[in-house]
Amino acid sequence: MSTLRRIEAKVEAGERLSFDDGCALFSEADLLTLGRLANQVRERRHGDRTYFNVNMRFEATNVCEASCSFCAFAKLEEGAPLAHTTTHEAAWRELEAFPDPRLTELHMVNGLHPKLPFEWYEELLRGWKRVRPSVHLKCFTGVEVHFFAQKFGMTHEQVLARLQAAGLGSLPGGGAEIFHPEVRQRVAPDKATGDEYLAAHRAAHKLGLPSNCTMLYGHIETFEHRVDHLLRLRALQDDTRGFQCFIPLAFHNENNSLRKLPEPTAVDSLRTLAVSRLLLDNIPHIKAYWVSMGIATAQTALAFGADDLDGTIVHESIYHSAGSRVPMALSRDELVRLIREAGRVPVERDTTYGVVEELPRAQRLEASMKVRERMAHKRALSVVPSS
Amino acid sequence: MGRVLSKAIEAAGLSEYRARALAGTALTQADTDRLRSADLLLVAGLADEVRAQFRGDDVRIVPKARMREPKLVVFEASPEASGPTGAEVLREIALLRLRTPGDTALAVSYDALGLELAQTALLFGADVLFGELAGKRTLPLLEGPNARRREIAGLVERSGRRPRFADDNEPALAEQSP
After folding, report:
1. Could you read off the pLDDT of A203-220 as tens digits, one per residue?
2. Alpha helices, DSSP H only, in B105-144?
3. CB neighbours (10 Å) of residue A134?
4. Buried-state track B106-138, b at ≥16 Cβ within 10 A, e below 16
5. Would you kindly state where each structural domain of chain A is located, as residue ranges?
6. Residue B117: its chain A contacts at CB < 8 A?
7. A377 near B CB under 8 A
8. CA-nearest residue of chain B to A302?
């Protein structure tokens, strides 16, 4: 039996895939077959249900003492051009003034600021909880948590317990990059190692804080590094069951020191997402993050194993600093439309995947008629007949 | 086509379409209307199999001026805020492949679709890319048409296909069958 036939049989039987299986899926599987396999797993878990949320992004500071080569967001010190650190009042005002009453989540990722005291972050969270107590605070990557632990002489658990007491609800997945030291020492040499990132998440899970996890792909890593990364996440999840969602993040090449590298293409993104769905058999959700993949590819990824499109975002700086050309925000209606027109059922969720509202699927006939009408109207399809 | 897709196509009751398309018979509008409600990847699988059989793995990259050649269909939709979304565009490309005779090339514009969607369209039955080579988005430090050529060639190669830039004096696209 060929390698791929053996993998197909394992997927159909619900058996766990190995390191070698993952490498073979990256290097040998044809993409449509891979997508179909990943979609089987996705539909086994979620049917057609596809999740999104009404969220906002916030970056309190882009001042960062780390110097990751892929990053276009961080500024080394206060006062550098484009460096910024918010005030508490501005941060609280932004949440208070957020116009959509459906907002359920604030997502915050920051630089590793060398001077802000730990109490500053605690007060930031407390203030947000004062102005909008119902909004879930998904803040601080595993890298930030490790940075706080080192800088302020605490354990990961102590850091997280204090932030939890101030209002923290969960951790975002950023900062994972590629765990393997061969890669990490070259692209992110001066921040948490892969083991330290995982230790921070382990501590969060122990405290009952769920988290997401990520992988930055498409730069200098090999397929073997990607599989290694995914299996390290899977191993932690076997122990803790605290990861809710995995988000593959596509490398972008503008305004950073890896700008000579080409970016991963749509096909690379679909393949990575599909392999992730197949290898991460214990992580419930795989997200096609539209800011990272682009809107059309993220929507297409809903047929390649993804079951979540992320949310409205509203304002995003990290990817846009590195050249992302997608809009800063998508409206709730746009997200619903993207999901419906991919043939799926839109489910508005909160951060921990509680259902806020499940919307009806598009009527198939009606939807396809609309497509044809729109295309005819736009004179979108031009056929040059044979002579 | 792999076993997984093949089984799924059979299970979805699409074998008849597959047999007709692979026999070289273009599907009818009524056929493809029915396929609008089929699973997106199955439609892609059908279109890709037809493309592989009749057009081979080469992807021709040609100037827009050659889009009036015989035996060529051109798909020119683009995803817009109020227009079709990416998944709809890909489905329509696949359906157009299935409605088109096997000896006819199917072209998509990377200017209209964007590079990402144009690359994905190569999995959905397209075998010709066209557009301007002096685009806005080029590889860093390598501005200009050569960089654009390399970028597009890279997109084609990374989709598992062979890029072929068609010069003006090359034979008609439809004559370049596998």
Report:
1. 999 999 999 999 999 999
2. 110-113, 115-121
3. 9
4. bbbbbbbbbbbbbbbbbbbbbbbbbbebebeeb
5. 19-374
6. 266, 296-297
7. no
8. B87
- Say what the ipTM of the complex is: 0.89
With 50 as the cut, is the pLDDT of residue A385 above it? no
Residue B112 tokens read as 């209209």
Which single residue is written with the structure tokens 């990861």? A243
Residue A371: per-residue pLDDT: 63
CB B121 within 8 A of CB B93: yes
Q: What is the pLDDT of residues B42-64, one digit of tens each?
A: 999 999 999 999 999 999 998 88
Greatest Cα-to-Cα distance within chain A, rounded to the nearest angstrom: 78
CB of A48 within 8 Å of any CB in chain B?
no
Q: List the single best residue of A1, A28, A260, A267 to mutate versus B (max B Cβ within 10 A).
A: A267
Instruction: Check CB contact of B75 with chain A, cutoff 8 Å.
Output: yes
User: In this predicted structure, what is the pLDDT of residue A315?
Assistant: 73
* CATH number given to A19-374: 3.20.20.70
> Do A248 and A273 touch, CB atoms closer than 8 A?
yes
Which of A294, A303, A384 minimises the CB distance to B73?
A: A384
Question: Which chain B residues are Cβ-neighbours of A368 within 8 angstroms?
Answer: 33, 36-37
Residue B93 in contact with residue B126, Cβ under 8 Å? yes
Q: Is A361 on the interface with B (CB under 8 A)?
A: no
Model pTM score: 0.92
Of A51-55, A58-62, A325-329, B104-108, where does mean pLDDT reach its minimum?
A325-329
